[in-house]
Amino acid sequence: WAEYRTALIDACQQLRRFAPEVLVVSLGVDTFKDDPISHFLLDSQDFLGMGEIIASVGVPTLFVMEGGYMVDEIGINAVNVLHGFESNTP
């Protein structure tokens, strides 16, 4: 999560400099530690932080669900991103 978080913060800082009118996020939760194709090993709590960081861009945002395979936590992780986003949205 530490490396992923750093990369996401950097990407969001670059997005803010670009100043988009809207943001479309292709949300794949296959980065979860128990996902059979994951190499990222993120915990469910990390997805809350992901949403908070994405909210820092500060523009209207559309999330499009993309991936996550054969694990019960897919819904939990997707909802955690949305909760984290909402908790950091003015």
Describe the structure.
By secondary structure, the chain is of the alpha+beta class. 48% of the residues lie in helices and 14% in strands. The chain contains three helices and two strands; from the N terminus they run H-E-H-E-H. A two-stranded parallel ribbon has the order 1-2. Helix 1 (2-18) packs parallel to helix 2 (44-55) and helix 2 runs parallel beside helix 3 (74-87).
Short account of what is shown:
The chain is an alpha+beta fold and 90 residues long. It has helices spanning 2-18, 44-55, 74-87, and strands at 23-28, 61-67.
Helix run count: 3
Portion in helices: 40-55%
Give the CA-based shape. globular
Number of strands: 2
Low-confidence region ranges? none
Which class do the helix and strand fractions yield? Answer: alpha+beta
Could you state the order of secondary-structure elements as H and E? HEHEH
Q: Would you tell me the overall average pLDDT? A: 93
Widest sheet, order of strands: 1-2
Beta content: 5-15%
What is the alpha-carbon Rg in Å? Answer: 13 Å
User: How far apart, in Å, are the first and last alpha carbons?
Assistant: 25 Å
Largest sheet descriptor = 2 strands, parallel
Give the SSE layout.
Blueprint: H1 2-18, E1 23-28, H2 44-55, E2 61-67, H3 74-87
Parallel strand pairs: 1-2
Keywords:
90 residues, alpha+beta, two-stranded parallel ribbon, 3 helices, globular
